[in-house]
Amino acid sequence: MSASEIRSLARSLLDLCKMRKLMVATAESCTGGLVCAALVDIPGSSAVVASGFITYSNEAKHDLLGVSSETLATFGAVSKEAAIGMAKGALKKGKADLAVSVTGIAGPGGATPGKPVGLVHFAAAARDGRVITREKRFGAIGRTAVRTRSVVEALKLLTELARGPARSAKAVKRPAPAAGRLRPRAARKPRQTAGTRRRTSRP
Hints:
By secondary structure, this protein is of the alpha/beta class.
């Protein structure tokens, strides 16, 4: 995705957040602030962007965002669990309505068994309790490309959350019959007669 397309995506997100009066925070590791930079590059972004956290080290994730040491030790910094902790921490400490986090391995080094270069975890959290997570395996496409694609994914995730919760399908109500509409008559039951009455002539 080109720089102009990223700018268009960021502008659309800002417009949506302005309309809904939502403030946004970012928590970034491998993107190093590129998501926040894409937003604040748009004039008027101060009405939407509350704060941005660059937490490259595990210590920063713990100290600045409150990601638990147990989470980092058990699952690692590049994990869904760490991404969720980062997003929730940015939401709380950044005093925002929405927050997105990015943590991954941009390369060319840093890969570990089960976690290849190009693996990136995302999470977005809303103040109403909604949380969305996503995992992308971009592959060894180059450090710059991984980071750029991560910015796009983070902006899309924020946009998805900013649109609000999915509405459940409402039960379809049958329209009431019109006032002048004829209703089908109930079938009449045949009369049962005990016998034939005799006619008597009057005198």
